[in-house]
Amino acid sequence: MTTKIFAHRGASMLAPENTMDSFELAYQMGAEGIETDVHLTKDKVPILIHDETINRTTNGYGYVKDYTFAQLQSLDAGSWFAKKYSGASLISLEEFLLWAKPKPFYLNIELKNNKIDYKHLETIVYEMLNHFEILDRTIISTFNAKSLQRMKKLNQQVDKALLTSKNYRNLIKRAIELDVNAVHIKYSTLKTKLVERANQENIAIRVYTVNKPIQMIRCFARGCHGIFTDIPDRGLKYRKLYQNNYLGEST
């Protein structure tokens, strides 16, 4: 089993997160998956942004839910990161999927509904993924257990992942109860026994956010199914080094 390299909000250490610049760079680097975050606008358009507010990554102020998509798209979502990205815009899930559909990588769509539980977010996202015929290479993740249950009602077969930042003692038991395919954990909570228990139940373990080489190597050695990194080319580089060293030692 090869640990897959997911670009966290795109190549977000090198370009403004959740923008086409960041996604395109991740694709050019060879990322095997792209992770992004979905909120709903005032007019119910799924939009890619991490925070509930637009304060940190745009030149606007306030909550995503209080603006229409057209209003949000007119904001500058790149200048905060670097001058050369001035004028970069927020994009819709539809625009992202149009770009992603012909490309071979996996998608991880995080539903950002743990603080604001957007009504019908699951249905809107699911129907769009189904329309683009991209469900077979998409993982839906969220911190919100109720959201996972709602997604299950829409489609029992879609890959679902429970996101958690806590070190739960019975995390795999909880994952089984929620009938999810994967658990996405914070790097600091990665334990060998957790991975072993997950493997016994055929549940994937993916780890966020892994940027340091030593952390990457540890994830590869533990047999994690995937890592989320802001620097996907580094992840690919160190996975290759790990594989070469491991093969060299075993011959």
Question: What would your notes on this structure say?
Answer:
Helices cover 36% and strands 19% of the residues. It has 251 residues and is an alpha/beta fold. The chain has a single domain (4-250), classed as Phosphatidylinositol (PI) phosphodiesterase (TIM Barrel, Alpha-Beta Barrel), CATH 3.20.20.190. The chain has an eight-stranded parallel β-barrel with strand order 1-2-4-5-6-7-8-9, surrounded by six helices. Helix 4 links the parallel strand 4 (106-111) and strand 5. The longest helix has 19 residues, at 232-250. The protein is globular. It starts with a strand and ends with a helix.
Q: How do the helices and strands line up, and which of them pair or pack?
A:
Layout (H helix, E strand, L loop, with lengths): L3 E5 L11 H10 L3 E8 L5 E3 L20 H5 L19 H8 L5 E6 L9 H11 L6 E5 L2 H10 L4 E6 L6 H8 L3 E5 L5 H9 L3 E5 L4 H10 L3 E4 L2 H19 L1
Helix pairs in contact: 8-9
In short:
The protein has 251 residues and is of the alpha/beta class. Helices cover 36% and strands 19% of the residues.
Mean pLDDT: 96
| Extended strand count | 9
Q: What would you say the CATH architecture is?
A: Alpha-Beta Barrel
Question: Can you tell me the CATH topology?
Answer: TIM Barrel
Q: In angstroms, what separates the terminal alpha carbons?
A: 19 Å
N-to-C SSE string, H for helix and E for strand = EHEEHHEHEHEHEHEHEH
Helix/sheet category: alpha/beta
* Main sheet overview: 8 strands, parallel, barrel
CATH homologous superfamily identity: Phosphatidylinositol (PI) phosphodiesterase
**Tally of individual domains:** 1
- List the strand order in the largest sheet: 1-2-4-5-6-7-8-9
